[in-house]
Write the structure tokens for this entry.
Amino acid sequence: MDANRPASVSKPIHKILRKELKFKGAIITDDIGMGALTNFAQKQHTNIDVMAIEAGNDMLLSNDYENGIPAIKDAIKRGDISQKQIDNSVKRILKLKIKLTVLK
């Protein structure tokens, strides 16, 4: 479906989920610390966590959060990831937590 990027870091795939399939819930990655994904990000000279957020994921299963969190913060400061996107992700995550009774 996307010849250029793996599905978990593909904006077109996420667009299909949100627009065509009208999925309104939280999108959560599989393990983005897998070699194929980290190698792909290295070839793109970027951070896999940033790529995953830019693609449209709301929550990440990352084993490199020590580098990922600062990289995401920097991407937000640069405007590569919008505050609106982060706000929308937070809303979806909170709705999921309420649905699962993690929050009341």
User: Anything to note?
Assistant: Strands lie at 28-31, 59-61. Helices lie at 11-20, 35-43, 48-55, 65-78, 83-99.
